[in-house]
Design a protein that fits this description.
With 139 residues, the protein is mainly alpha-helical. Helices cover 40% and strands 7% of the residues. It has a single domain, classed as Cytochrome Bc1 Complex, Chain D, domain 2, CATH 1.10.760.
């Protein structure tokens, strides 16, 4: 019984830090709607880098279905979150990609960004990451 309580304590404590957050974690389908709003014009409706604006860009947008393939078959959640919100992004690597951090603010949810720890994360950002992970190509 003590083990169960010890395991649940961090989640309960974290939930107190994110007052007013949605009760449900985002699903890939939630993220798809956000993707279509913020990303599809450049990356395309199927996330393959072939959106209607791609031809006019100096450096074509990346095929987002190959993120895991480019990272040793592992989807780097934290890296993707940092790239999308603009926290850790270089204009030389991602020229023309806007920072979406302000657009993705709002209610927080406890989200595992890949390190096994639940971190308060904007619901919209977590939803977008869930969607991008769901569209990864299989080898």
């Amino acid at each position: 019984m003590r083990r169960i309580l010890a395991a649940l304590l961090p989640a309960v404590a974290l939930s107190g830090c994110i007052e007013g957050s949605p009760q449900t974690m985002p699903a890939a389908s939630d993220g798809r709607a956000l993707y279509m709003t913020y990303c599809a014009d450049c990356h395309g409706p199927e996330a393959k880098g072939d959106g209607p604006l791609a031809r006019s860009m100096a450096k074509p947008p990346k095929n987002l279905t190959l993120i895991a393939v480019r990272n040793g078959d592992r989807f780097p959640r934290a890296k993707i979150m940092s790239t999308v919100d603009g926290y850790a992004r270089s204009d030389s690597v991602y020229p023309g990609m806007p920072e979406f951090g302000a657009l993705l603010e709002g209610d927080l949810v406890p989200f595992d960004s890949g390190d096994g720890k639940l971190t308060p994360t904007p619901w919209k950002l977590a939803a977008l990451v869930e969607y991008l992970e769901s569209v990864q190509a299989k080898r």
